Write the structure tokens for this entry.
Amino acid sequence: LTADQANLVQSSWKQVSHNEVDILYAVFKAYPDIQNKFSQFAGKDLDSVKDSAAFATHATRIVSFLSEVISLSGNEANAGAIQNIVSKFGADHNARGVTKAQFGEFRTALFAYLQAHVSWGDNVAAAWNQAVDNTFTIAFQSM
Ligand code: HEM
């Protein structure tokens, strides 16, 4: 990611990264197969689990992971750190039976959320696409 692209991703992420529960809700709503991989949420009515502590905890974990990768991006000095945390992330999810197709679904749902909630344009979309491509390239090596 160029420094400019990293700035675009960081500034748009800042506009929504406090909406943890909302983001996870949007992902589960669009893709129940993702919700069903979580033993604590599988088969349950989404609106009934949305306000639970377990939901908030997991939403915060996902958003914090994204925030960490995003904050490291755009600086070549952090390439090794990104490689380490993202390959562990891929391996851990692979071990849980999460598929590359589900990561693709997550990407679609996240982008829909971003488009609806941040100032979106071609340059912002291109920066996010590059960021997710880079992340998935690393994660998929462990899947
Ligand atoms: C943990 C599923 C995508 C971040 C987990 C857990 C499951 C899971 C079942 C374990 C939960 C627990 O034991 O309480 C999935 C599925 C995905 C997905 C089906 C499909 C797309 C993501 C994405 C991120 C993410 C895109 C981050 C951007 C995390 C984190 C944890 C976690 C940080 C907790 C740490 C860990 O145990 O690895 N995920 N996940 N997940 N997930 Fe995901």
About this structure: The mean pLDDT is 97. DSSP finds eight helices and no strands in the chain. Residues 32 and 91 are 22 Å apart (CA to CA). The chain has one domain: 3-140.
